[in-house]
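Ticket #4471: structure export looks truncated?
Reporter: QA, pipeline team
Priority: medium

Steps to reproduce: submit the single chain below to the structure queue and open the exported record.
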Amino acid sequence: MNRIRILVPLILVSVLFCFTSSAYAVIPQLLGPLSALLSIIPQILAFVGIAVVTSLVFARDTTKMYFYRIRNFVLANRIGSIVSILVLIILAVLTFQLVGRNVKPTPPITVEPEKSRTELVTNTQSWSTFRFNDNRTGHLDDQPGPLTNDINWIFKSKEAQAVELSSSPAIIGNRLYIGATHGSIFSVSGATYCIDIETNKLIWRHDSEIPIISSPAVVAGRVYIGEGYHYDTGCRLRCLDANTGDPIWSFKTASHVESTPTIVQGRLYFTAGGDGVYCLDALAGEEIWHYPAVHADMAPLVKDGKVYFGTGYGEYRTYAVDAMTGKEIWSKPAPYPVWGSPSSYNDIIYFGLGRGNFSESAPIPKGSVIALNMETGDTVWEYEVGDAVMSAICVRDEQVIFGSRDEHVYNLNASDGELNWRTNLNAVVASSPAVTEESVYAATYEGRIFSLDRSDGDLEWVYDSNSVTNGLKFISSPAIVNGNLYIGSSGRYVFCLGGNKAAGRFEDR
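Actual output as written to the record:
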């Protein structure tokens, strides 16, 4: 009976602790269950401490000599104490799982910025596909990229949980749009952020019950962004108002939407993991056609009436289908899984291939870039590298530029695949480089950003995010706008580098 009287308040306090405490843990999908477990050791210790103190408070004996009471309680009730603690931990786990499964999307959180600085997204401004354009340059305007590694500002999300910004930013006017994953050891969710790049302030945030890895596309005053990570199902492509974050429509799939949609002439094309490829009416969100029975996670390329994509599952292949009907035009086998979002130059389309994934290399790493004839799918050339090419393939001025998990950035001749240069960054390059007329900007998985001379690959400057905090990673790809570089990271940060205040658009912070 005494044990029951002790155990009941223990359970009540433990459940209350589970519901009210904030979890500062890593996201298991991205960093693994062991790291996640280690990250909540302080919570477990606090939990056990609360259990012990509560048992003493509710015991019948006098409150004197706490040390001896703790010792006697543990010695006299060794088995009962262990069982009680295990039961309480299991209850905590189940409670966290219940909370995580019942997370509901909330209305957008809107922050009113300074009105004199606020610019509405107009119908003439667009970021219509991954990396801004069909060449995947990540470069919006004609201004050169940042000439220095100076920091303009660093945005830090304030959520009381882990935040990963693996999505790549899209920038229109003074607004930056980026997706995020929020989570703890027992629950995970997502959000889309809209940030004022002049004031470094949050304009709005739209929450989702599912993590967001997808990078947004912004067209005609709307933000299009997918939900879900590799093991998620039943995820949606969402359409939000670019000015307010209010939901306009959503389209549910049977799988996940990691990719960035591509919007062309009022039609929206996107890959939906194991649910294939879709074409929707961009205005209404209604299905026009569906190409099933293929698993694809890349941003499709839409050009000259065709949709191009590839698969890294099952039989590795590249595809071209009719943009109006979804009917297959050609498909070709590939030597390795097809990951890198394609780009094109003249009549050639380029894909990145490789074994492994964004987080780790295969036991026997292999990778390459293939160039195919856009009409027939026939191979024009192939260039082998030491590990997977996860990045989009950028094409500029007859040069093909990309990063690899083999720690190099490559520059090839677009027509024949001949090597112009390669530069060793001594770290995995999983994100896509941004390319301007003069420079190549590449971010590494180990938290550094490099500026390379586009003519010869020589180092111009490097920025190390460890100067902010240790352990940051860059899977997000940099965007170059107004002479500055914008990129998301793990650890809840968005960076703006370059120190370019020539246009008078930035404040010292």
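Status: closed, not a bug. The export was complete when the record was re-opened. Leaving a note from the reviewer for reference: Residues 78-101 form the longest helix (24 residues).
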